Amino acid sequence: MDILIWIGAAISLLGVAGLGYCVLLALRARNSGLSEDENRASLQKVVAYNMAALGVSALGLMLVVVGIVLG
Question: Is pTM beyond 0.90 here?
Answer without folding.
Answer: no
